């Protein structure tokens, strides 16, 4: 039996407006690399508490209809806006067929390029207080982690990238939890070499050590990537 479809009609107060006053300009970055985006206020304020507050009340942005994000990267904001409007994150750089043909170094680099984009989008969504986008990005990160090379190896985020994720998120962030779970699937000798040779975020190192210690105590091995995907709700808000 087919599930009932959602009704086509809805409350008039929820309608999107497409007239000129409903358009907001968002200036991202600083000169000479500042890029101006245009978006509908209704899309932004429905998702983001940051935009909801900026575009209401006695703020300059509410009057000028211009929001400035000088500390952010235009390419990342463009990905975020794609997610808000379409529900998709256009971060894949190669087709599946092309990925299969890559050597290990190329496969790993391709995955980490995508992880970089996704982590940056998550960090921006954290700043913009957009929980829906953060959760969608978690799903995308876990999906990338499911990709495996010819010999079954997954391409997990580099420790430098995971450490950067810690640098740019607050304590208690669900992204931090996910990055630790993924990093805990790396071989122990690789972990020791990387942590010894590079200056990582201290909280990342501590949480990773706690994760490995928990594995040892439980003697249950590392939580595999399939289990992480099955429990994906744990990394959402």
Question: Describe it for me?
Answer:
With 237 residues, this protein is mainly alpha-helical. The chain has a domain at 102-235. Helices cover 54% and strands 7% of the residues. The protein has a 3-stranded mixed beta sheet with strand order 2-1-3. Helix 4 (74-86) crosses helix 6 (104-127). The chain is globular and about 55 Å long. It starts with 22 loop residues before the first strand and ends in a 7-residue tail after the last helix. The relative contact order is 0.09. This is BTB domain-containing protein. Pfam families: BTB.
Write the layout of secondary structure elements.
Layout: E1 23-28, E2 35-40, H1 41-47, H2 49-54, H3 60-64, E3 66-69, H4 74-86, H5 96-100, H6 104-127, H7 131-145, H8 159-167, H9 174-183, H10 188-197, H11 202-218, H12 225-230
Parallel strand pairs: 1-3
Antiparallel strand pairs: 1-2
Name the helicity range.
40-55%
The overall strand count is 3
Q: Beta-strand level of the residues, as a percent range? A: 5-15%
Rg: 20 Å
The coarse silhouette is globular
Q: Average pLDDT across residues?
A: 83
What gap, in angstroms, lies between the N and C termini? 32 Å
Instruction: Tell me the major beta sheet.
Output: 3 strands, mixed
Entry summary:
The chain is mainly alpha-helical. It contains 12 helices and 3 strands, in the order ββαααβααααααααα.
């Amino acid at each position: 039996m087919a599930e009932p479809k959602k009704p086509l009609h809805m409350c008039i107060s929820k309608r999107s407006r497409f007239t000129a006053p409903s358009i907001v300009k968002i200036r991202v970055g600083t000169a000479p690399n500042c890029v101006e985006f245009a978006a509908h206020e209704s899309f932004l304020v429905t998702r983001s508490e940051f935009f909801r507050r900026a575009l209401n009340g006695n703020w300059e942005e509410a009057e000028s209809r211009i929001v400035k994000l000088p500390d952010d990267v235009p390419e990342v904001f463009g990905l975020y806006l794609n997610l808000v409007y379409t529900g998709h994150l256009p971060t894949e750089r190669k087709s599946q067929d092309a990925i299969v043909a890559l050597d290990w170094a190329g496969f790993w680099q391709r995955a980490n390029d995508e992880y970089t984009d996704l982590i940056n989008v998550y960090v921006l969504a954290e700043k913009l207080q957009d929980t829906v986008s953060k959760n969608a990005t978690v799903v995308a990160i876990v999906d990338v982690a499911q990709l495996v090379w010819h010999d079954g190896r997954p391409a997990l985020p580099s420790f430098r990238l995971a450490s950067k994720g810690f640098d740019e998120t607050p304590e208690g962030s669900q992204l931090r939890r996910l990055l630790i779970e993924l990093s805990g699937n790396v071989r122990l000798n690789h972990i020791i070499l990387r942590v010894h040779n590079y200056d990582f975020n201290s909280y990342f190192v501590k949480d990773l050590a706690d994760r490995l210690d928990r594995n040892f105590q439980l003697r249950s091995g590392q939580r595999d990537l399939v289990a992480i995907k099955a429990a994906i709700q744990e990394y959402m808000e």
